[in-house]
Specification:
mainly alpha; Globin-like; 0% strand; globular; binds protoporphyrin IX containing FE
Length: 139
């Protein structure tokens, strides 16, 4: 699958100045729609919000570098095992991220942009699931 890198980069550049608002909206929505996930996270979410934004920025900065993305995102996925995260949680987070981006982007959120972000998240999820497969095969 080829990602719409230019569209992802330019839309993220537009939204980056409002990254704190994106993180607020993301976790508000995640916990409102999936209250059972709240207990997995620390009570004080300020550090986690910063980590989410940094991770998104890292992904967008490395969209053209498949090997960097594979390495960093695969390792991130394996670390998530220890946080109690299951594969079934990834689509929930993906839907929540897309909805939050859409809210923030407002009128700029076109079906094309939504598809670009859905493809990007799908690619991340695939990298993570492959890393989890390798991890469990090695265990
Ligand atoms: C591609 C999707 C995701 C990204 C980019 C991401 C990003 C991150 C980052 C950067 C951290 C900081 C710790 C570390 O780097 O190891 C983290 C921690 C964490 N994430 Fe994710 N995450 C993703 C998916 C998920 C999913 C699906 C869940 C399930 C609800 C989840 C729950 C958590 C939890 C519980 C922590 C640890 C919080 C703590 O105890 O400090 N993440 N995530």
């Amino acid at each position: 699958m080829s990602l719409n890198v230019e569209m992802l980069e330019s839309s993220f550049a537009l939204l980056a100045p409002r990254a704190d608002e994106l993180a607020d909206r993301f976790y508000d929505r995640l916990f409102r729609e999936n209250p059972q996930l709240r207990a997995m996270f620390p009570e004080d979410m300020s550090g986690q919000k910063k980590k989410l934004i940094s991770a998104l920025a890292l992904v967008v900065a490395n969209l053209r570098k498949g090997d960097v993305l594979n390495e960093a995102v695969g390792a991130l996925g394996v670390r998530h095992i220890d946080y109690g995260v299951k594969r079934e949680h990834y689509p929930i987070v993906g839907r929540t991220l897309l909805a939050s981006l859409g809210e923030l982007a407002g009128d700029l959120w076109t079906p094309e942009l939504e598809a670009a972000w859905a493809d990007a998240y799908g690619a991340l999820q695939a990298i993570i699931f492959e890393a989890l497969d390798r991890h469990s095969a090695a265990a």
